[in-house]
Known about the structure:
Keywords: Transferase. Its EC number is 2.5.1.18. Belongs to the GST superfamily. Phi family. It comes from Rhizophagus clarus. This is glutathione transferase. The protein is built from nine helices and four strands; from the N terminus they run βαβαββααααααα. It is α+β, with helices and mostly antiparallel strands. The chain has a four-stranded mixed β-sheet with strand order 2-1-3-4, with helices on one face. The two termini are about 35 Å apart. The relative contact order is 0.14. The model has no long low-confidence stretch (mean pLDDT about 95).
Amino acid sequence: MTIQVYGNPGSPFSHIVYYALKELGLSYEIIQPSNSEEYKTPEYLATKHPFGKTPYLDDGEFHIYESRAITRYLANKYQGTKNSTILIPSDVQKAALVEQFISVEISYYTEPLVKILRQLIVMKRQGNEPDLKIVDEGREELGKTLDVYEKLLEGKDYLTGEFSLADLHHVPLTSVAFSAGEGDLWNKRPNVSRWWKNISERESWKNIVTEYKSENTQ
Length: 218
């Protein structure tokens, strides 16, 4: 049975799942909600995502929600079955380092990035003026994180040395940030810039950009 991903093809959080699927060489079907009210129906809350969000994945009789949980599941079940891509190493210590950087991404990277994008994209889309004070706060916080990344990436192409799920999780929202004109935060740091080039120019991601650019939330 084909894996089914229930989500919005324009959402960066759905793109995390699509990216993992493509990296692992897996075929999948996208099921898009007919409208935003569908997320609130008792059936959706009971059978898909109890918090009324996307993405959500069906793999036969197995159901799972939350993008990072989905990608971990896909890597643990399918990596090495369709191609040679390994997103979570089998070595316990190497796998722990991947988890370490996934935690870093959630805590220190995505939080300030979302703060910036909420103002520059979501507020504008709602017809409101962005709060530039909040934008500047987000830039300062993210800049401090990227200063640490600059040191951690010295002599390395990827966060743990090899491409992994930790790198993959950074790509969709960062791509939105570049489209919003925030790319200088990455470009002015040589190691970070090189890392971004490595993780954003992989064939799987370029395919996603091509396939879903007309629906991108940018």
